Automatic annotation (TrEMBL):
The keyword DNA damage does not apply. Gene3D superfamilies: 1.10.287.70. The chain crosses the membrane at residues 255-272, 542-564, 585-607, 635-657, 677-699, 736-760. This is Polycystic kidney disease 2-like 1. Residues 555-767 form the Polycystin cation channel PKD1/PKD2 domain. The keyword Membrane applies. Belongs to the polycystin family. Residues 862-872 have a biased composition (Basic residues). PANTHER family: AT14535P-RELATED (PTHR10877:SF183), POLYCYSTIN FAMILY MEMBER (PTHR10877).
Amino acid sequence: MAAIRREIKDLEQQFDEADTEYAEVSKKLKDITQERANVEEELISSNVRLKQLMGELHAQKQLTDQQEKIVVADSRMTMDELSRKVETALLQVLEERFRDEAFTSAITEQSAVSVSDKVRVEFDDDEVFWTLQDNYTFEMLLHDAARYWDVAAQDVMLVDERGAIWPNDGYCRLEMHRNSASKIAMKIKPVAVQVQDEGGEMYGAETEVEESEEEMDQSFLAIAASVEDELLLAQAKGGTLTMKQKLSLRRKMRNELYLFLFFSFIFIWTLYSRRTVRDAFLLQEAIQTAFVEEVFGEYGEITFLDIANTNEMFDWMEGPLQNGLFPDALYNGADVPDARKGYVMTYNRVVGKIRLRQLRIAPDTTCTLSKLISQTDVTSSGMHRHRQFVDHCYGPYDEAFKSTAPFGPLAGEVEAVEGAGDGTGFTFSTDIANKLEGVYISGSATGASFDGSGFVRDLDPRNRSAYIEALHFLKSNLWIDVQTRAVIVSLNTYNGNYNYYCISQFMIEFTQGGSVVPNALNRILRVDLYEPKSFEETNRIIFLYIPEAMVVIGTIAQCVHILWRMYRMKKVTKNFRNLFKDSWVIVDVILCGTLVLSIFLRLMFFLNENRTSFDPFPLVPEDEYREMAELARSYGGVFIIDAFTIMVLVIKSLKYFSLQRDLMLLQRTLSQAISDLGVFLLMLVFLFMGFVIMGLNIFGMQAAGFKSLIDTLGTLFLILLGEFDFEEMREVSPLWSLIFFIFFVVFMFFIVLNIFLAILNDAYTVVHTQVVWDELERRKPLSLRERFEVRRAQWRERRNINRMRKMKRDKIKAAKKLKVEYDKKQKERSLLDRIGKKKKKADAEKAKQAAEAAAANPEKRRTVKRKDKLFE
């Protein structure tokens, strides 16, 4: 019995499945029959429309024939003229018929209805047919449909009539053959719908009027924002954007250009508001004239930069330096008043004292004597004798082997101690005692790095006699000897007219060969750049502090924008490094880094302890030297970074050349030639370094222009620019100078530089040719079929715009309706709240009255209590 029941149950189940399958087949047959009826009806409608079109074309042809008969008998019409007239007539007819939407839809669908190798895709209220090809997948169909309806492919998906998503790797022909009754519809993904809804809310305040130009720009900016992810994918994996998306990104770039120009203007404004270059140049030129360009010597033929020995160094100290600090008299012969003492070039007052600092090297430390110059033998008298050609070796300056021992009149009398010296110039002082900790000065002759220690002598700029006595003391006691490697004269001046300090350093470097190399350096400094007292000045607030704040805000915004783009790239492509495939992103990162570094250096300068503790007034009981070199170096470093930032801004401005045709031509030329220029520069470096090493070894020992790698590099660059001293080379070696010059000019000038120009010329030719062909392609007259496609696209675009406007209006109405319902609910809720409050208030009053009554009648209260107990 159990087996029979199972068989009966299986038979019933099979019967149910058969019924279900029969119902499905019947439903499919019904759908096919209905679809066939619809197709036949559409074909009939299309045939009617085509007959009407043919009738109108026939009438137009008859009209044309009548017009031809009117023409003079001897006049002849060419085939081109006839074709143009026919196309014009057909275009007029098509323009009239295109105003009928039903006709356009019939023309679009008639060639693809009920054909087995075509598939229909629906989107909103529109539908289009695509031809099915071999290996045509749903992913290809999705991209084609997205491109047709001008939407992003990643924001849409293909679904069937049940809402199931078609597989991207599935073949359309195979799937549609298996499911012939299935439909394909393109729908926007939920995330994209949310983005569009948010975009629609922006238009909530619009009325039913035509969109203005500003609203159109906002629409394009919204499209550019929505296509940002697709652009990131295109950068990472390669891809193309639609024309509308490209136009949107172009308008977005135009708005970015306005912000970029505004930020660049504000940054340059802040740069010049903190320092006036012309005033700084005039101040240092005055100091340069007083101490460097002033002549001295027996015949007045030497300047500071011509100093060649120790005698001339002391002559300069007793001449231009002394006369600049202590003029003998005024120009009318009167004595200089006490109030004007300590001034240089009329307006520049010396701050603190003048410092003479010498750095020395210990013997036999940084170099050793050759064994060939020492000899040990036995004399004729039988005595052992040891002798050497020179006594000691004095090498280049090295901080680890510097001499700290007292010398001169104090040699052997005072022990060398770490700390401050006695101020005579013959005892050693550490860099900490000199307030030069961590400060180094690079020598121009030997390349040595001189630290802040040394043998120091400070001089009073207001006491001429003490200055003369100090120089006489140093000179008479041989302050300069064989161990001397550098003498640095430092003085600081202040100009109240410009509110600038000039920090001057005159260094005389003594080489191992015995020559003397002078070098002068003037730095400009402004101490009160940002002061709390200046916040009371309206002009400084408007022209300095507000632009500075705007630069800081703009810097933060740019850095945050870069981080946001990295986050979006990481989210879209799973790797933020793909963002840096765009060279302009690298430029943005460099710009952000330089801006942050510039702001950081300004902040460090403002908080510098030397700046905050600086006081120009003399100290009590006596004045001392003010060390301001490191502060001036920090001040100059800020403007160097600012100047580099401006250079980066100029490079970034090339990005916006694509907004203008002629400038875009130059940008594309550089992009086209960049790879070839990279290979060319690599070859140039190898060739140039070969000539540099060759010139250094041939002429470096005798010609000043070839004494080092840097000097040789500069000399060869000048030769390329046409400025050179061939006589200097010829004096070293007439033969090799001629061979070197000819080879260098032939290879580097006539060949290499012309290759450089040829690369740029070829790139410009390629880009210009491409632009010309694109322009000719755009100007090419359209055929009748192309015009038909353009008109159909325009009609479809107008229909899409109308649909979007309708959606906006519907959303506005829905939002207003929801608002009205919300307000109504709020009113009802407030009414119920008031009623509830009144009821609670009444209950509270009754409870209060009951409590007062119970308090007034205690017997009743006890009775109530007893009743409660009885109930318990």
